[in-house]
């Protein structure tokens, strides 16, 4: 266990609890609403889920397979998302990833999290621990975008 990472798990837990409040009542049309400069809630939710799955990999947990994750990586856009993709499946994968993350968190060791990542992230991190911390920030960043898109879709804010 790496006790210093427990606040990061808390941030991921908050994200897990908030996702349904942010997008749980979206219609098919509302999933596709976006501002002129950004992505739709559909893409952002898939992107967040894809990176939740990445956290599982970083933790050394068995991967959760989803054929749609390639549509949500860095550099992709809404046009890459298959029209047939069911967003309830994406949201469920997000929650399933959180459950697995929470169950495996106590198994993290200092040796695991100090491993080099093999690249440097935008915040300067270059270890597994740094990547997990960065991805918690990344999730909060995109959750804020979902809050804005929620309001653009004519729905009340959640906070």
Describe this structure in words.
It is a single chain. By secondary structure, the chain is mainly α. It has one domain (3-152): Four Helix Bundle (Hemerythrin (Met), subunit A). Helices cover 52% and strands 0% of the residues. It contains 5 helices and no strands. It has helices spanning 6-23, 41-58, 87-104, 110-113, 128-152. Helix 2 (41-58) packs parallel to helix 3 and helix 2 (41-58) packs antiparallel against helix 5. It is globular and about 45 Å long. The mean pLDDT is 95.
Main attributes?
globular; 5 helices; 159 residues; mainly alpha; Four Helix Bundle (Hemerythrin (Met), subunit A)
Please tell me the overall pLDDT. Answer: 95
- What percent of residues are in strands? under 5%
Number of strands: 0
Query: What sequence of helices (H) and strands (E) makes up the elements?
Result: HHHHH
**How would you classify the quaternary structure?**
single chain
Element layout with pairings:
Elements lengths: L5 H18 L17 H18 L28 H18 L5 H4 L14 H25 L7
Helix pairs in contact: 1-3, 1-5, 2-3, 2-5
Provide a compact summary of the structure.
With 159 residues, the protein is mainly alpha-helical. It has 5 helices and no strands.
């Amino acid at each position: 266990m790496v006790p210093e990472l427990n606040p990061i798990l808390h941030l991921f837990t908050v994200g897990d609890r908030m996702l349904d409040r942010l997008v749980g009542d979206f219609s098919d049309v509302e999933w596709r609403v976006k501002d002129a400069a950004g992505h739709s809630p559909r893409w952002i939710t898939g992107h967040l889920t894809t990176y939740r799955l990445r956290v599982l990999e970083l933790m050394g947990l068995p991967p959760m397979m989803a054929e749609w994750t390639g549509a949500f990586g860095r550099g992709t856009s809404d046009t890459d998302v298959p029209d047939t993709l069911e967003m309830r499946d994406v949201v469920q994968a997000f929650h399933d990833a959180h459950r697995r993350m929470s169950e495996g968190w106590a198994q993290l060791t200092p040796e695991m999290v100090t491993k080099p990542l093999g690249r440097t992230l935008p915040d300067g991190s270059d270890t597994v621990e740094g990547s997990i911390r960065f991805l918690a920030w990344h999730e909060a960043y995109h959750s804020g975008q979902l809050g804005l898109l929620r309001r653009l879709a004519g729905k009340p804010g959640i906070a």
